[in-house]
Design a protein that fits this description.
By secondary structure, the protein is of the alpha+beta class. The chain has one domain. The protein has one helix and six strands. It has one helix at 64-102; strands at 2-3, 9-10, 16-20, 23-32, 35-47, 53-56. A four-stranded antiparallel sheet has the order 3-4-5-6, covered by helices on one side. The longest helix has 39 residues, at 64-102. The radius of gyration is 23 Å and the shape is elongated. 6% of the residues are buried.
Length: 112
């Protein structure tokens, strides 16, 4: 959790979550100098002795095939998100180039 200077709480939400029973793959968008990239965390949700829900990254044998399937789906989804991000960036760059070219002042004709 991040905190702003005014002490209000800001939560970082995943770009997407893929679920299978008590397992989930959370896909997180991160920014870098070269653009956005995505990271995935896979967790299992359980209830502790006090009845509170907790997440762990430890899996029992019966979960492993589900974890593999979640990983495959997360791989496909991160590729979609990356592709969508590249497409959006290309559209924004095109709009910016177009606006720059239409906002140019016309060249003055040279007097003879």
């Amino acid at each position: 959790m991040d905190r702003d200077n005014d002490n209000s709480t800001v939560t970082n939400k995943p770009a997407d979550v893929i679920r299978d029973t008590n397992l989930k793959a959370s896909i997180w968008r991160n920014e870098s100098e070269t653009g956005p990239f995505y990271a995935t965390t896979i967790t299992r949700t359980y209830k502790d002795r006090d009845g509170e829900y907790r997440d762990t990254n430890s899996f029992v044998a019966g979960d492993l095939l589900k974890v593999a399937e979640l990983a495959r789906k997360a791989y496909e989804r991160t590729n979609e998100l990356s592709r969508d991000g590249r497409d959006q960036s290309a559209r924004e760059a095109f709009r910016e180039r177009r606006e720059t070219s239409t906002n140019r002042t016309p060249k003055r004709e040279i007097e003879r």
